[in-house]
Amino acid sequence: MTTRTARSSRGRRRNGPSHAVARGRTRRGPLWVGLAALAFLGAAGFVAVGGGSSGADTGHAGAAPSGPTERARSSRLGSTTPSPGPRSPSAGSRSPSPGPATTSASPSPRTSRTPEIPATGPGTFVTAAGSSARVGSGTVLRYRVDVETGIDLSATDVARQVERILADPRGWTADGHSAFERVSSGPTDFVVQVATPGTVDKICGEYGLDTGGEVNCNVAQHVMVNLRRWLLATPVYAHRVKDYRALIINHEVGHFLGHGHVGCPGAGQPAPVMMQQIKGMHGCLPNVWPYDDKGRYVTGPALS
Predict the structure, then answer these.
(1) pLDDT for 12-47, tens place per residue?
(2) N or C, where is the chain less crowded by C-beta within 10 Å?
(3) Pick the CATH number of 125-279 from 1.10.357, 1.10.10, 3.40.390, 3.40.462
(4) How many other C-beta atoms can be found within 10 angstroms of the C-beta atom of residue 196?
């Protein structure tokens, strides 16, 4: 970044020529002639000083506030020239007194906003193309990943995230008898479907579950993921949204595998994935995996 310093020539123009000419005129003629000449030449000297070049600093004392001309110049330079940093006078030069502080035309910082989530959708789905490698040992469960039509999510991206979750060594493959393989056609054992709250309510409601526009469910072969939870998580996981997505998949696939709800095993212990963490942690610590790093199943007291 180039830092411009104040041009010392301004000081010379202001304090030099006008004073020198004024002294000459007072010696040669009447006082009123000298005063008139002084006023005329002083004004000319002010114009010479004030009419800066295109690179002049406008923050000196006596400068008018930035008007349309200055804003236009800043706009022209903004896309090609870095904004100058704090100015410091060079050694031996006289720097004009600083005037009112001016701000650079840098863009405002981005602010995060809540994504727009449709209340409901058409109930039709786009299937993620391709397939994944088989992970785990034992019975292979073939699954598909669908995203409801019209929502701003990539089915391919969702499928990759689901693949990583089910392939994680802390996931359900750690039970030693579950294996998973994603497919895009042919027979499937279950389908992960990300959908609007209204569509989740409709599909889950057909099997007698009330998801209230807020939660996910597993019914029959459907692993239903509420778009609101996929994008916003819950207050506990508000800054760990991707972690919460692992909790959604592991919890609902856990139901598909036959696991029921459990409670918190004790204050300060990891929360089981089969605990309904959206209803409160009850002293447990956030955890999104069925097994810990040592391959131990994380569970708690069974709930009816």
Answers:
(1) 333 333 333 333 333 444 433 343 343 333 433 333
(2) C
(3) 3.40.390
(4) 22
